[in-house]
Each structure stands twice: as structure tokens, then as C-alpha cells.
Amino acid sequence: MEEKYCQSCGMPMGNTDELYGTNADGKKNNDYCSYCFDSGKFTSEMTMDEMVELCVPHMVEVHPEMTEEKARQMMKKFFPHLKRWKKD
Question: Does residue 62 lie in a domain region?
Fold first, then answer.
């Protein structure tokens, strides 16, 4: 099974819907995590670069072997492919 990532912050969503955000009708939204999306809207308005900076410390915490700069570079390459940040 293909790994599912939040289409806003890039967080792995796991094999259940436990981390899924919710739509306005209360149903699970399988594109975004609960940290980024709740009740049919994003939990905060920010730019992609602001999201990267918000996520850098979390990435380094989960991967202590990774420097902040390496995490930042990886996210700046990955995030433009996520639904929230993709340019049509």
C-alpha cells in the first residue's frame, strides 16, 4: 500500500484515518491531517515557506540525524507537489 501524506504539511498519515482532518459535515478528509484541516477549513493560513519553517523542528525531532538545513531542503522540494501548494 502506498504511503499517504498530508497534502499540506507532508506528515505521513499512517494506515488508519486516525490522523485525518474533518470536512465541514464532520466526515473525515483523506487529503489533510487534523493538525492542518478541521471542520472544512485549514487551521491556519500561511504560505508554503511558512509551513516549511513550522515543520522543520518536527522533522528534525523525528529524524535526529538530519540537520535543519537538510530538512528544509527536502521539504522545499517535496511541498510544491502537495495538493495545497501545487500550482496549476
Answer: yes
- Within-domain flag for 88: no
Q: What is the pLDDT of residues 35-88, one digit of tens each?
A: 999 999 999 999 999 999 999 999 999 999 999 999 999 999 999 999 999 986
Q: Number of folded domains in the chain?
A: 2
* This prediction's pTM: 0.90
Share in percent of the chain as helix, strand, coil (round to 5): 35, 15, 50
| Same domain as 5, residue 22 | yes
Distance between CA atoms of residues 66 and 8, nearest Å: 21
Domain carrying residue 12: 1-43
Cα 6–10–16 angle (5° rounding)?
40
